[in-house]
């Protein structure tokens, strides 16, 4: 969020405008404000003041919030619009929110205003980022489609690359749909309606009603987590980051530092054995290690010390071929990374399906999550032309083995 927020205040009552500015100042929000009270000055300010947010009274002598919002909408401006009024009434507020107004606050109760402003600015910023990403994805998709046609005329190796590019293309298109306005807008309205109910109705609500409202809040929160996880999944599908010779010890320590509080709560103990440097995409492998460690923390046995063992080694091709792993046509040596914990594990019959996106082995009320974490891990391994296997045992933990083909850069470093 920007440090200096430009707030355009549409208000004809000087006392109310001053009260609003004092409340914003008292909250600690860093802002620059401009107060206007007519259609002409409001319209001019959109071009000259360039507001980040608009705080509008509902009704003015010669202008009103509805007309001001229509002006914003007709000009396709992505500016959060919050109505601040003591006369609008809850029914009209809900109707305007359905029309696209960001939110509503009563003049008699400013307690939720700052929170709503911060949330509105964050959502506006996220929308801009998503629009930029969608535009980038369109360009990448067009380039990939062109590349696919060219690759059809090449040899078998290039034909394989064409399939990979086609898969990336499909995932980019899927993310384009997921991150669209159709997914974000209903969630924003749900959260806005929850906010209105909690502000207006909580004291008179029955216990059953309060319980249902809490369940709605939990579902909305989980939906936001799902969107964020899908965004992470899409990011690892875009193979842009270069390979680098990396020491995993540094990456592991970085992830441990980020998860330090949870590691302490779970009494986690790490046993990091010999780690052989490998040529990988460090950015993606950091996400891989973060997801594996987070998965172990989530499924640790309660009131028991969590043990995580990490090691790597080099498998000669003859050793590797004895494993009889599927989809391993490359005749070369392999870097083998092993990650093991002593958590609740799972039955061996689930060894293959744990990497399927949205696949969950436990009820959401038992263990939170969206079922995307291990799917991201597999996608990262796929990006490295590698193979990942899971070997679980109920109440005895799980062992993940990753096999990455050793390329020329790896060979030069090892020699």
UniProtKB/TrEMBL annotation:
**Which reaction(s) are listed as its catalytic activity?**
ATP + protein L-histidine = ADP + protein N-phospho-L-histidine
Name the Pfam families on file.
HATPase_c (PF02518), HisKA (PF00512), Response_reg (PF00072)
Among the GO biological process terms of this entry, one is: osmosensory signaling via phosphorelay pathway
Protein name per Swiss-Prot or TrEMBL: histidine kinase
Q: Which organism is it from?
A: Flavobacterium panici
Q: Where is the Histidine kinase domain?
A: 178-408
Question: Boundaries of each Response regulatory domain copy?
Answer: 6-122
> Which positions carry 4-aspartylphosphate?
57
Q: Which UniProt keywords apply?
A: Coiled coil, Kinase, Phosphoprotein, Transferase
Q: Does the keyword Transmembrane helix apply?
A: no
Q: Which InterPro entries match?
A: BphY/WalK/GraS-like, CheY-like_superfamily, HATPase_C_sf, HATPase_dom, His_kinase_dom, HisK_dim/P_dom, HisK_dim/P_sf, Sig_transdc_His_kin-like_C
| Keyword NADP (UniProt) | no
Q: Which residues cross the membrane?
A: none
What EC number(s) is this enzyme filed under? 2.7.13.3
Give the molecular function GO annotations. phosphorelay response regulator activity; phosphorelay sensor kinase activity; protein kinase activator activity
* Cross-referenced CDD domains: HisKA, REC
SUPFAM superfamilies listed in its UniProt record:
ATPase domain of HSP90 chaperone/DNA topoisomerase II/histidine kinase (SSF55874), CheY-like (SSF52172), Homodimeric domain of signal transducing histidine kinase (SSF47384)
Extract the coiled-coil ranges from the record. Answer: 114-168
The record ties this protein, via SMART domains, to:
HATPase_c (SM00387), REC (SM00448)
Task: Specify the domain of life of the species encoding this protein.
Answer: Bacteria
């Amino acid at each position: 969020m920007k440090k200096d927020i430009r707030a355009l205040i549409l208000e004809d009552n000087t006392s109310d405008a001053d009260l609003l500015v004092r409340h914003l100042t008292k909250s600690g929000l860093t802002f620059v404000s401009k107060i206007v009270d007519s259609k002409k000055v409001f319209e001019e300010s959109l071009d000259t003041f360039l507001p980040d947010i608009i705080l509008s009274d509902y009704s003015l002598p010669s202008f009103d919030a509805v007309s001001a919002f229509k002006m914003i909408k007709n000009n396709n401006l992505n500016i959060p619009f919050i109505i601040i009024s003591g006369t609008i009434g809850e029914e009209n507020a809900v109707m305007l929110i359905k029309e696209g107004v960001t939110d509503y606050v009563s003049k008699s109760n400013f307690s939720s205003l700052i929170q709503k402003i911060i949330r509105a600015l964050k959502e506006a910023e996220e929308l801009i980022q998503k629009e930029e990403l969608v535009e980038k994805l369109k360009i990448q998709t067009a380039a990939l489609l062109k590349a696919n046609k060219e690759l059809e005329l090449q040899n078998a190796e290039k034909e394989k690359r064409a399939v990979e590019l086609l898969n990336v293309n499909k995932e980019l298109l899927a993310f384009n749909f997921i991150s669209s306005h159709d997914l974000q807008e209903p969630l924003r309205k749900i959260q806005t309606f929850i906010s209105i109910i909690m502000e207006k109705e909580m004291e008179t609500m029955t216990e059953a009603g309060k319980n249902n409202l809490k369940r709605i809040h939990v579902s909305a929160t989980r939906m936001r987590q799902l969107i964020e996880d899908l965004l992470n999944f899409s990011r690892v599908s875009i193979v842009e980051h270069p390979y680098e010779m990396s020491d995993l010890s540094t990456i592991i320590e970085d992830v441990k530092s980020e998860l330090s509080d949870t590691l302490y709560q779970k009494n986690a103990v790490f046993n990091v054995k010999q780690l052989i440097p490998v040529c990988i995409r460090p950015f993606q492998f950091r996400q891989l290690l973060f997801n594996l460690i987070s998965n172990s923390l989530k499924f640790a046995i309660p009131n028991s010390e969590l043990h995580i063992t990490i090691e790597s080694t080099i498998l000669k091709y003859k050793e590797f071929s004895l494993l009889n792993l599927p989809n391993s046509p490359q005749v070369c040596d392999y870097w083998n990374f092993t990650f093991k914990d002593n958590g609740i594990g799972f039955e061996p019959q689930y060894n293959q399906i744990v990497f399927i996106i949205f696949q969950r082995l436990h009820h959401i009320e038992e263990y939170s999550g969206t079922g995307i974490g291990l799917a991201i891990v597999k996608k990262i391994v796929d990006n490295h032309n590698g193979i990942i296997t899971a070997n679980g045992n109920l109440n005895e933990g799980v062992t993940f083995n990753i096999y990455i083909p050793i390329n020329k850069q790896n060979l030069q470093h090892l020699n």
